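Subject — a protein and its fold

Tokens — whole-number codes for backbone shape
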Amino acid sequence: MLRLSMTPGIGPILIARLRERFGPARAILETPLTHLQQVQGISGERARAIHAGVDEDEIEMEMREAASRGAAMISINDPHYPPLLKSIPDPPPILYVRGSLSPTDAFSVAIVGTRNCSAYGRDQAGRISAALAQRGLTIISGGARGVDTDAHRGALRGGGRTIIVMGAGLCHHYPPENESLFESVVSEGRGALISEFPMRAGPGKENFPRRNRLISGLSLGTLVIEAGEHSGALITARLACEEHHREVFALPGSVDSPRAAGCHRMIREGWARLITGAGDIVEALEGSEHLIAGALREAGVEAGPHASLFDQRPRDGAVSPADGAAASIARLNLTPSQQRILDVLDSSAVELDELSARTGLPIHTLQADLTILQIRGLIVRTGLSAIERKR
């Protein structure tokens, strides 16, 4: 798959068509030229490029570079490949990953916005991401200056996880001032850096629209905070809405601020929900279980009732591709704490403090588990802090 993905002129869409027609990468590489050219978009020149292949030394160099940086290469056929991402029209055939992926990363929200944000935008990005992280949701963004950076930092401050989708190969820290942020995410086991670009690929301007589709594809929903009329964040939001069929949210700003013009247009045109805080996002995601079931079908997994992405949480709560930890994608069983919550709930509403006493779980654990149970449609919140099992 690495050899195929490094072939000049052969991108994710063409590889997806080739895989659909001929199967695994090895079969594609061995397919006669005349058969390859029967696939839409595969010209004679491209078919010959596939047969010529990539220099073996170049392949070996790429693999050594990844290993030296502690990066794993995850093929689209690998069980560690994120199923939500696999379900988009043009998933990258190879993902480079530094850090750890967790089953709970399936419950994620992307937060994007302008690099040149105001103090208001920075504050809101940090506040909302911290609140979502406290509720057990993974925050996904692009590691850029401005809103992205504050979203990642807010997730860490909230005690949660974050995934940084890079617009360059993982040999680069871009922007350079975020190097310490990137390294802390990896070294502290708080998430991952991921990229679809070869290890030494630089941060070219053409990379960022491609990067944006991964941000959307990894997420149940995308929140835009401060985006002008022509902001790249709107590209991510459009992908989420029109191609990936995910939830899209917009935070309103000052009516006379050019930084908020894009957000206001999204709301005005009706393709983004107006939100004012994390609670609005969680409520909207309650109906998103169909997204998870759809992703499972794309991954070739039969989903049962209330299905999700992994059958169980590994002992350390994360999957580290670099150390080869195994995790099967199958029906998700509830974690022990989530099952305990459901076991003590009945038809009457229970206050949060009372639920903590009944389950023996601390409030912060309860908040995270309740969010996941709410999104999966197993509980409902009534009033300010009351919870009951959904009938």
Observations:
- Residues 301-333 have pLDDT under 50 and may be disordered.
- The radius of gyration is 21 Å.
- Residues 1-54 form a domain with the DNA polymerase; domain 1 fold (CATH 1.10.150).
- The CA atoms of residues 170 and 351 lie 46 Å apart.
